[in-house]
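We modelled the chain as a single entity of 160 amino acids. Its sequence is:
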Amino acid sequence: MKKFAMVFMLSIVLALCGCGNTPSIDVVQEGPYGEIKISLPEGWSYETYAADNDSEYATYGIHFYPENATDGYVDISYTDAFGVCGTGLVVQVTTLAGNSAEIGTYGNNDYWSYISFRGEYKGLVATTNDVMDWWDGYDEQVLDILDTLSFSPNVDEAAR
């Protein structure tokens, strides 16, 4: 009985201090319109990219993908200009990271093509790029990662 009580108390202490939670890393990319941040769980890789000053569009963000993926990634970025073709597009409205978002899927794809955020996160867009080989089994994790998204607009650009 004493052993059980000791193990039980140790379990409670570990749970309260956060031990047992999946470790994650915060990934941040700053740009001309603000800071994009996501939390990636263990087993995911990423690359960040800054805005290209030579481009007419200020696009910057983060590519993320499972560590074992040989191709493809999900991109979360800020972009000045985002548009889609409506042919074959199915749109679903949802809430992600506390903001309204539009999920667009083309044709009979098993994966969505884009998520365009609204409200305070307007200008943020997630896109899938060559994810066919690894999407099954990771689709829910991708949405969980995007649900950790935060965007801190630059004060100068907040009135845009």
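As a brief sanity check on the tokenised model: Helices lie at 2-16, 139-146. The two ends are 64 Å apart (CA to CA).
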